[in-house]
Amino acid sequence: MSQVAVVGAGPIGLTLAGRLAQHGVDVALYDALPAHLGEGSKALCMQRETLEIWDRLGAGERVAERGVQWRVGRTYHGDRELFSVTLPGASDEHFPPFVNISQTEVERLLIARLAELGVTVKWGKCLAGLRQGDDVELTFTDGTTAHATYAVGTDGAHSAVRHAIGLAFEGHTFEDRFLIADVRAELPFPTERRFFFDPPWNPGRQVLIHPQPDGVWRIDWQVPPETDATTELVNGGLDRRIRAVIGPDVLYELIWMTGYRFSQRLADRFRVGRAFLAGDAAHVMSPFGARGLNSGAADAENLAWKLAAVLRGEAGDTLLDSYDGERRPAAIENLAVTNATMRFMVPHGWWHRSWRNAVLRLSERLAWARRRVNSGRLAQPFAYPASAFVGPPVAGLPAPGAVMVDAPVGGGRRLRSLTGEGFVALCFGEPAAPIDGCRLLLVGREVDDPTGRLRATYAPDGAPRAWLIRPDGHLAATGHPSQLPAMLEGALGRAG
């Protein structure tokens, strides 16, 4: 019997299983496929915070080194550029804002890292049923069973775990289809994201182009609802589409192609008893803005340390309730953002389409119109200010619940590199008394502040101050160093 059973060995299940193992949890990872299936790019844009999560897992550098880094996104109307956006970020940050690498390759890298941690995927285990009592009993279609203290469904939009625990998955599916192709070719394109509204070679609809490693380019076409991907491949339609983008004489190799509709759906809850949902099993959304996989990775990181804390006896069951309380609002925000993007990209009705087209035409000349062009609001980490498990805000300081601001701490180290295993207390001015389960870092003793960024961010007034940082990299609370025990009690749900 394992402590946690993770069902689904996609990127979210692999992330969760790896982080649980690092926290000392006995984890079993199951997947319905007979083996890992390399199937095209799928999710592509890995956000900085996701890379940081994988760095804590021990795979972030591997992903970043293999991926294509980009900072500029360009938006066009027809064949005319409307504007470009340079993503924010300091030159000394560990990872760029986004790295493009296929989900398939990320999965291979994570599987290799999990093997180093002693976690292997149990392939060919298709879930048939789940029963809860003093533990969780999982039944598989091959007739075998397994038991675990907790179970997590990371098994995608058609989650067998979600069906087994009886949760609805309300939402809607967009009528228009999207055709996606991975093409290897030598092209003079820059390593930038390029989004086209109504280009001459896809009139009335959109095209998105992204670079990938090894000379591969991802092309997404919005196409009419009746478009069939196989028919496009057979009748030469796909070739004509590709040629319109890359040119008539460029040699190319088709690596992968698919066609599908995008949905916006959300589970009623992310927890039922001893069972949890994460990633696409809990929420699905359109990919414009790269919020699906990146949000799922944050689900995994949030849940991993909480399950570990409860299993170690450091926290009670209410801490596990905070997973739904923190990550479901994140999904709601992401769905709202992506829904607004899709309403702009695929307007319904004469009035909405006319307004969208007018905004695009005017955006060539007017800044206020350009600000209303929505080709996808890129993913950002969600903060938890409304959570009962983070402390109150303090004026002029980062908000508890937000992701920590990183900074150099001397010796080639960063603040983030010292977090992730357990709670960390960052102290200024005077040390705190030792606390079980919390690593103390006094600035000027255990860590330095060579750039001044630590003090400018976390203690600008020069007074003694302590910050409690959670294992998932979010700020838990701040106050005088003497208040750290109370902060930790609150972060674990033991206060009051």
Describe what this molecule looks like in 3D.
The chain is an alpha+beta fold and 496 residues long. It has 13 helices and 27 strands. The strands form six sheets. Strands 1, 2, 8, 9, 10, 11, 19 and 20 form an eight-stranded mixed β-sheet that branches. It has a seven-stranded mixed β-sheet with strand order 6-5-14-15-16-13-17. A hairpin with a 2-residue loop joins strand 22 (408-410) and strand 23 (413-414). Helix 1 crosses helix 2 (48-57), helix 1 runs parallel beside helix 4 (103-116) and helix 8 (292-311) runs antiparallel to helix 9.
Shape: globular
Helical proportion? Answer: 25-40%
Overall structural class, as computed from helix and strand content, comes to alpha+beta
Span of the ends, CA to CA? 34 Å
Could you list the spans in which at least 5 consecutive residues all have pLDDT below 50? none
For the biggest sheet, the summary is: 8 strands, mixed
Separate helix tally: 13
Number of strand elements = 27
- Average pLDDT over all residues: 93
Proportion in β-strands: 25-35%
Rg: 24 Å
